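Dear support,

We are seeing what looks like truncated structure output for some complexes. This example has two components. We would appreciate it if you could run it in full and send us the complete token output so we can diff it against ours.
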Amino acid sequence: MMNATPEVLSLDALAPGEVGYIRRLEGGRGFMSRIATLGFTVGAEVRMVQNYGRGPLIVMVRDSRVALGRGEAAKILVSKGEHV
Amino acid sequence: MSEKKEITVALAGQPNVGKSSVFNLLTGLNQHVGNWPGKTVEQKTGIYTYNGTKVTLVDLPGTYSLTANSLEEIIAREYILRARPDVVVALLSAPVLERNLYLVAELLHLEAPVVVGLNMMDMAESEGIHIEPEVLQAALGVPVVPLIATKGQGAKELMQTVDDVAQGRTPYEPKRPEIRRDHQEVLEQLMLLIADHVPAEYPKQWVALKLLEGDAEISRMMEERLPHEVWDRVSEILRSHEDAVIAVAGGRYEWVARMVRAAVVRPRAGQITLTSRFDQVATHPFWGLVVLAGILGLIFWLTYNLGAPLQDLLHTYLVHGTANFLRANLAGAPAWLTNLLVEGVLGGVGTVVTFTPILLIFFAVMGLMEDIGYMARAAYVMDRFMHLMGLHGKSFLPLFLGFGCNVSSIVGSRVIESPAARLLTILISPLVPCTGRMVVLTFIAPLFFGRLATFVSWGLIGINLVVLASLGIVLSKVLFRGEPVAFIMELPLYHIPNVRTIGLAVWHRVVEFLQKAGTLILVMSVVIWMLSALPSGDIETSFLAWLGRGLAPLGSLMGLDWRMIMALLSSFTAKENSIATLGILFGAGGEEASLGRILQQSIVPQSAFAFLVVQMLFVPCVATVAAMHQETRSWKWTLAGVGMLLILSLLGGIVAYHIALLF
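Here is the complete output from our reference environment:
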């Protein structure tokens, strides 16, 4: 039972420098389409660059630097460390 | 096969790949800037000749994909599908190869042959990414040309490759990304259903794929074309594959990952790059604001210290020089003709001249910030504050552009995807104190407030921004009803600015201003001069005086006489026209210095203050109103916006006058 699957958390919970792998996207179709186009697809590696605990954050995804509002980041669910 | 003498090439690419630099490199000064037919998006076309073939290069809007998420994406794909260019050059930024290849994955599904231009090779190296173009070429099955557009490298090779593909000398055998197996079945079902109803210029598989991705535009098109019962079956299939949009994008990125694995070597990982070092300051919640404030301060400093002397030079040599020349050479002509030319026409020229240097500085600084990659950082640090108004950081850019000209801020609001947020930005942006108003402010304030002029000027700008913010908060409650606005934005790599790219952009924008606004200002200046001269030749008994006196009771609430009311009304054609009108009505004949003396003698400071408050908040100029209508496509919203500002400014004037009377 213990740690059978890695814990799923929302992207804004990652600290700067931490890496997450996308497990799931939530939100409307338009939002999902835009975010998937930018490289946020299931399995993609996301590295947190800047997260001050409030305000927007910056992540690296597929070699590009993307700024996200916290509300948007909350719709991106990741698991830390291990590739899924 | 005979060779084509004329070909058309489309330049496609994601934002921030250096498309303008490549476009300028290929076409030089041989280019034309206009709008896409029926759209408000800028269209650039240029011509170059290579190997005796005349090539028309069409710059497509920068798009991340070809899915209908924005107007730009629709324009780009409609052009490729319907106009059938001989070649599509897909320009990629080498340091962001992975995300950039996503667009290639989409382009390869269309029929037009693709040539990949791999730009910014030097930056990829400095980011620690080594790309082997020939390996990428073999993996994609389409020609790949490495480029460093800012250093002029690779242009000839790109032209040669485009020519080879267009003339059929190079066989075009792309390795198209295959559809993922779990979608193969549903795609075939869809294709079977829609096959007979897809327009000839659209590939069937592409249409099916777009339906699966939930593309609103294609869905609407197919709903119209398909018989009812067929569409019902299609939408039933689509409903049971709601999450397909993620899976389709995921499939494309799997293909992209294979290309990247083949062609990219990363010798050093995790090094601290220039961009991350700059960003530690530029995107910091505190230092980022300091940097931004510093840049804003610099722009104002440049405007006052570089723009003003330039204006003086132009006035002395261009306006006064021409006036003297005309008076000397028209000695025998009737007085009305000389007056019309010198006071009416040259008065208008003087106004345009006043405006141009400032606009030049604003456009140059904006272009520089955009080209360096700083603009997105400004949006990022401002997001917190824009959020308070129900807007996000992206609205900061267009609003900030408004300091140059409200027209550019309204047109620039197109970067905002959400229609409600865009509308809100359009409605409040006329409150950004534009250069036209700053011209009036910086002329009037020193006349009446002496050493306090700077303080009063900042105060008036502050009033505008406070009104803007309050209006934003109120309107966002009405327009959004609490619905949050998505904030997703790429932060491009910083890079060394390209003088040529910025210079050409500034040039196009200044020319556009002189053509559109300049002409309008000139015409209105003549009309107002005529209104002030007809029917008797005496201002005091002119049509203008008659209209101004009619509005005098309203003006008296603000301490304004009929001439100042007329100056405000004439600011409707262009904000800075107020000065020209005051000049004419106070009989100063286009001489700013003598107008200043006359105004000081005829107006009390309280009235001047009320005048400035109204001037700063007043209804937007004609060009801005036109832009508002163009962008909202609604007279209702345009007139609502104008009416709102009319009421706000008159109330502001009355309150300001009565408060000023207390001092």
